Amino acid sequence: MTWMVTGGAGYIGAHVARALANADMAAVIVDDLSSGLISFIPDDVPFVHANILDKVSLVQAMTTHGVTGVIHVAGFKYAGVSVERPLHTYNQNVTATVTLLEAMQECGVDQVVFSSSAAVFGTPDVDLVTESTPKQPLSPYGESKLIGEWLLRDQAVATGLRHTSLRYFNVVGSGDPAVYDTSPHNLFPLVFEALVAGKTPRINGTDYPTPDGTNVRDYVHVADIAAAHVAAARRLEAHEEIEPAYNLGSGDGLSVAQIMAAVAAVTGIPFTPEIAPRRAGDPPRIVANGDLASRDLEWKMRFSTEEMVRSAWEARLRAEKGSAE
Questions:
Q1: 234 with 309, same domain?
Q2: Model confidence over 51-65: pLDDT tens digits?
Q3: pLDDT tens digits for range 293-311
Q4: What is the CATH number of the domain that holds 57?
Q5: In degrees rounded to 5, what are phi and psi of residue 239?
Q6: Domain span at residue 25?
Q7: Looking at the structure, do residues 206 and 227 belong to the same domain, yes or no?
Q8: Domain count, the chain
Q9: How far apart are the C-alpha atoms of 5 and 236, rounded to whole Å?
Q10: Residues 141, 165: one domain?
Q11: 266 shares its domain with 159
Q12: Rounded to the nearest 5 degrees, what angle is found at the Cα of 100, between the Cα atoms of 137 and 107?
């Protein structure tokens, strides 16, 4: 059995591909390299350079590599930018998912793990988000992910597609020093880039109703996220019962101030963050309950805050050293 990893040259997808290989599960990566890097692709995993809007290429890849399941990670993942580029976001995340499902149906591929997002919840007024928390996405990105879940649900009714969706918030760290977070919008890269440039990282708002006044979020290690994708794929392969969606949450969360303190300790670069005004729409706390995923997908937080920061920092330094050589 072979699993196609869409977006497998990206930060999360490349970790999923490595996790599949470590589990002795055959994989093939499909990526258009619009944001992924060829250097992230493991040497022993076949690579197809294609956009998932191209159904002909998808069908050819599925046929050539004997694909039996798909782990769908590819997508446009920038919530803030999606507000400015809604049509692009829907094209990349909704139309492309429709195209992928059409190719799967044509090739008889009947199982899929969908990389969804906790953005489907918007800003829920609860301390702990569960799978049944109302879905009220606040951006085209969050809406596109929710539509993706609906597409899988409806295709399951029509064709018997077996599926699950994995929702998570802030993915951090590195499970392989050759793979790092390249996003210009995520907290860890923003803090690291500021430090490397000799600038002071910034905190947006310190007057929230939280223990230290800064936002509290789930920060989950990318290797744990990848392992959950593999566990979901195994469960589908075994035809075991599986929920339509799982939250990959920490259950307690970390504040931005805690992350900043850990970064200073790990990097050895002392700094006092600059304080900026709150960003519009930022809720004080969003943390997800991961009990269902713990029950079914071997989900757990295997890394401490320091380990998450250290692995990310070491991967960032390696990337800088590599670019300088």
A1: no
A2: 999 999 999 999 999
A3: 999 999 999 999 999 999 9
A4: 3.40.50.720
A5: 60, 35
A6: 2-171+219-247
A7: no
A8: 2
A9: 15
A10: yes
A11: no
A12: 145
Please enumerate, as own/partner, the contacts of 92-97 that have beta carbons within 8 Å and a separation of 24 or more: 92/53, 92/144, 93/141, 93/144, 93/145, 93/147, 93/148, 94/144, 94/147, 94/148, 94/151, 95/53, 96/51, 96/52, 96/53, 97/72, 97/147, 97/148, 97/151
Strands 254-255 vs 216-217: parallel, antiparallel or unpaired: antiparallel
Residues 31 and 74 in one domain: yes
Report d(CA 230, CA 3) in Å as an integer: 10
Rounded to the nearest angstrom, the gap between the alpha carbon of residue 38 and the centroid of all alpha carbons in its chain is 18
CATH code where residue 201 lies: 3.90.25.10
Residues 180 and 162 in one domain: no
* Torsion-angle region of 205 (φ positive above 0: left; ψ -120 to 50: alpha; else: beta): left
Query: Catalytic amino acids?
Result: 141
Express each pLDDT in 111-155 by its tens digit: 999 999 999 998 888 889 999 999 999 899 999 999 999 999 999
Quick one: the chain helix, strand, coil %, rounded to 5?
A: 45, 15, 40
The answer on 40 and 10 residing in a single domain is: yes
